[in-house]
Specification:
This protein has 7 helices and 18 strands. By secondary structure, it is of the alpha+beta class. The radius of gyration is 21 Å and the shape is globular.
Length: 366
């Protein structure tokens, strides 16, 4: 199987399956001399870790990261730092329950990648989806933690945050937006009232054995103008590609995205004035901080839509590998809204893209 690597200068290769002994990744291209320990990575893993509330899969994985290579305890610097060589990261799987999937080993889940995976490779690991499982995204979060360290080294303290702004049919009230509130509820929701409403809403979905989709919004601040390129390495192009690579993502937009189709040219224009510091000040950010594929220095804003989890208890019509028609019910431990744990994954992918673009930009300036 090819295509397990993304990035150009900041390159991430992931490996492992949902029910294998471990998953992990190799991060190549990280500059030397950046302080890095497992404790720098673990807090981000905790954001994504399963089993933390009744609204996510109850699989109990500690997701403890082990750094296998690429760092050195430098006595002169008084810290463990990156060496500039590939950084190997390992996350052991400790709570697999493969027996939960025995009844679907020869059936294809509607809306899932079971069928296409089997058609392409002729073999599929039915235990939790194998390589196609969202379990793989834990490795991306680990890589994203390193990407954040790279960006901090280059630009000072940058901020990359994500929030769940819609769950199923339920949307937040943007007038209530508080980033701090996102840490106070199990949904990464910036609207306290919406989060309270979502508890009852998702509880009903969960008890019915069903699932719903979600929309996640990402915002990166502290990124300077100039990252990206005007043709094939557009910042928004690569960001959209990275976000679309996350399991269950079916749509991505930058800035106002599809809503710009309803705007006039006057409404859509991000007008400019000169600031007191001699730098331009934008009066709006409909573009999401990217124009012509290059960052403007404004906050970079992206949203992505996640479809409902395909593994549900409601009987669905399907076929078996033999071609026989049948019904399927998927038991086991699954997220009623996989979009919840997609928030830290989206943050990580944005961090990786920005780190890669930053290193490429550094390589072309004098």
């Amino acid at each position: 199987m090819s295509h397990n690597t993304f990035g150009h200068l900041f390159r991430v290769t992931t490996f492992g399956e949902s029910h294998g002994p471990a998953i992990g990744c190799v991060v190549d291209g990280c500059p030397p001399g950046i302080e890095l320990t497992e404790a720098d990575i673990q807090p981000w893993m905790e954001k994504r870790r399963p089993g933390q509330s009744k609204f996510v899969t109850q699989r109990q994985e500690p997701d403890a990261v082990k750094i296998l290579s690429g760092v050195f305890q430098d006595e002169r610097m008084g810290a463990q730092v990156t060496t500039g060589t590939p950084i190997g990261l390992l996350i052991e799987n400790t709570d697999q329950r493969s027996k939960d999937y025995g009844n679907i080993r020869d059936k294809f889940r509607p809306g899932h990648a079971d069928y296409t995976y089997d058609v392409k490779y002729g073999v599929r690991d039915y235990r939790g989806g194998g390589r196609q499982s969202a379990r793989e995204t834990a490795t991306r979060v680990a890589a994203g933690a390193i990407a954040r360290k790279v960006l901090d080294k280059l630009y000072g303290k940058i901020t990359i945050r994500g929030a769940l702004v819609q769950m199923g049919t339920q949307k937040i009230n943007r007038a209530n937006w508080s980033w701090d509130e996102g840490n106070n509820n199990p949904f990464f929701c910036p609207d306290a009232k919406a989060a309270a409403d979502w508890e009852a809403y998702l509880e009903g979905i969960r008890k019915n054995g069903s699932s719903v989709g979600a929309i996640i919004e990402l915002v990166a601040e502290g990124i300077p103008a100039g990252l990206g390129a005007p043709v094939y390495a557009k910042l928004d192009n690569e960001l959209a590609s990275a976000l679309m690579s996350i399991n269950a993502v079916k749509g991505v937009e930058i800035g106002d995205g599809f809503a710009t189709a309803a705007l006039t040219g006057e409404e859509n224009a991000d007008e400019m004035r000169m600031g007191a510091d001699g730098k331009p000040v934008f009066l709006a950010n409909h573009s999401g901080g990217i124009l012509g594929g290059i960052s403007t220095g404004q906050p970079i804003v992206a949203r992505f839509a996640v479809k409902p989890t395909s593994s549900i208890l409601s009987p669905r019509k399907t076929i078996e590998k033999s071609g026989a028609e049948t019904d399927i019910v998927t038991k086991g431990r699954h997220d009623p809204c996989v979009g919840i744990r997609a928030v830290p994954v989206g943050e990580a992918m944005m961090a990786c893209v920005l780190a890669d673009q930053a290193l490429r930009h550094r390589g072309q300036i004098g």
